[in-house]
Amino acid sequence: TNLEFSVFTAEDIRKISVAKITLARSFDELGHPLRGGLYDPAMGPSNRGEICLTCARDELHCEGHFGHIEIDLSVYNPFFVRTLYNLLRISCMSCTRLLIHDNVKAVLELQLRLSDAGYIVEAEELDVYKGKMQAFPTEPISTEELNQYEELLRSEPYNKLGDTKLSTAIRSAIVNNTLKECVLKKCIHCHAAVQKVRMSDGKLAINWTKGDKKAFLVQKLNTTEVPEDQLTSSIEVMIARDCKMYLRRLFNIEGPTLQLLFPMIRKMSRDQPFP
């Protein structure tokens, strides 16, 4: 049996929530918890002798219930900041592509699919082939050699014997090697300079050159006329809204590869591809 983990969508959170937190205050003048505060009685008793408004149990038997806060602005999920950092480092903001040659990407996708299906030996075999493709990325791909692996996945989509801790370790190694190999200074697709991304204290920042910033603003503002005062070299914190806009464009182009590299987004909709 396959067990998969994912993240709650905004709709999932609203469905399981029993209280919408809207108040800055938690208690009234008499010390009683306020509805809509952080100690809303619907989420469970906070004192002895109280009864939960949701399950009608006392403080000893109520397991507690989820509430939620509606956030008007986009914010980073702290659990995925490093994932976003890695993703920004291996993509080009000028052409919105992953810094992977198409031939190498095809082999990488097959390698990850084999690993996910439990075929760890076959996935490791493709490492040699992928190395050749990285050395000569413009050479045509040998479909005959790869078809045997595709046929294996079609005939037997899941190998129970290969689904072990080792398969998880091998998959992690494939992803980590990809993240290291794809950190480039120049885009292999549009040949523009790749933005330099930094992460500090849970914040993402980009070291912009004038050329990088112009290419980014042309796409963001959908115009070729960018004010000169916005084209200065600088280090800027990337706010969550801009990051979300860019990642959605990237997902529209590189969705299949991203879902294999980062399984957490595999089941998320195209309208909200990143947490």
Any low-confidence stretches, pLDDT <50, length ≥5? none
Query: How many individual domains?
Result: 2
Distance between the termini: 26 Å
Mind summarizing the main beta sheet? 3 strands, antiparallel
Order of helices and strands: HEEHEEHHHHEEHEH
- Count of β-strands: 7
How many helix segments?
8
Keywords: DNA-directed RNA polymerase, Nucleotidyltransferase, Transcription, Transferase
Family: Belongs to the RNA polymerase beta' chain family.
GO molecular function, one term: DNA binding
GO cellular component, one term: RNA polymerase I complex
Overview of the structural elements:
This protein has 275 residues and is mainly alpha-helical. The protein folds into 2 domains: 1-70, DNA Excision Repair, Uvrb, Chain A (Irregular), CATH 4.10.860.120; 80-265, no CATH class. The protein is built from 8 helices and 7 strands. The chain has helices spanning 10-16, 81-89, 102-116, 120-135, 143-155, 165-181, 210-221, 240-261, and strands at 19-20, 67-68, 91-92, 97-98, 196-200, 203-208, 234-237. Strands 5-6-7 form a 3-stranded antiparallel sheet. A two-stranded parallel sheet has the order 1-2. A two-stranded antiparallel ribbon has the order 3-4. Strand 5 (196-200) and strand 6 form a beta hairpin. Helix 3 packs antiparallel against helix 4 and helix 3 runs parallel beside helix 5 (143-155). The chain is flat and about 75 Å long. The model has no long low-confidence stretch (mean pLDDT 84).
